Amino acid sequence: MADQYQRKINYMRISITDLCNMRCLYCMPEEGIQKKSHKNMMSYEEMITLVKASVPLGINKLRITGGEPLVRRGVVDLIYSLAAIEGINEITMTTNGSLLEEMAEPLKKAGLTRFNISIDSLKEERYKEITRGGELKKVMNGIDKVIDLGMMPVKLNTVMIGGYNEDELDDFANLTYDHPIDVRFIELMPVGQASHWAKTRFISNETLRNRLGLLHPLKGNSGSPAKYYQLAGAKGKIGFINPISDHFCGECNRIRLTSDGKLKPCLHSNVEFDVLMALRKDPQNIENFIRSAIDAKPERHHLNQENAIYSERNMFQIGG
Known about the structure:
Blueprint: E1 11-15, H1 44-54, E2 61-65, H2 75-83, E3 90-95, H3 100-110, E4 114-118, H4 124-131, H5 136-148, E5 154-159, H6 169-178, E6 181-186, H7 195-201, H8 205-212, E7 216-217, E8 227-230, E9 237-241, E10 254-257, E11 262-264, E12 273-274, H9 275-281, H10 286-295, H11 315-318
Parallel strand pairs: 1-2, 1-10, 2-3, 3-4, 4-5, 5-6, 6-9
Antiparallel strand pairs: 7-8, 8-9, 10-11, 11-12
Helix pairs in contact: 2-3, 3-5
């Protein structure tokens, strides 16, 4: 289905939980969050029903997110059920990687295609600081496991924060020399908890790209927001995702489902559609409800304009 701006919407990002086993500085409050009651959260069965209703509208690609999706029980069974839906061609997952060493193989057998792994430091103590207790070794073991399973490409998502971890730019880029992975630098977005960080610590990807020097540009992947480059002789690629300095709204092909049952046409808008209530009240009409949410997708965000209105929800509440 195309939205009102003739963008083909074929990609749904599904947050299955707002809980996480880390407390990253720019994402979650140190004390964590209050756990919602089951009645206010989407069940796996309701998510599956929604996806089935979305397929006739053109949705064929899913990304499972959180919070940290691997902390919700039964996630392997969910992936198995989603992979069995006719018309779904790809299921990926964004994770912090801490549980991948044990869970990557069963997820692959269930039908998961590949992983995006969020990691903002390669220094053990700094990683522990930015995640408030995370263990870098577990994440690196998880990355190795995914590579061993051949779930390629493995994508590492890294947020460079001015005055904090930008000194690791070369370390991340150099990972692509010896490993067939994509290291993707994502600009810090003013969403929820990160809003005040973005005002003082934002660093554009253009700045990072210039610091890296000579990079060979690669042809862009269809449907991907990243602009890809390669270091000479490298096995992997370097990507830059620029939601602030060079937005890709004109090519946006996605819609988001939160764990508490809200359809968000745009990450950076406060407009939401209560699909959970609609699904429980009138399940026969759910396809039309999804269609209305897609029709409401705005032409673009306005984060880089003066007096911009930021999303009221944190990223872990929306889905990373």
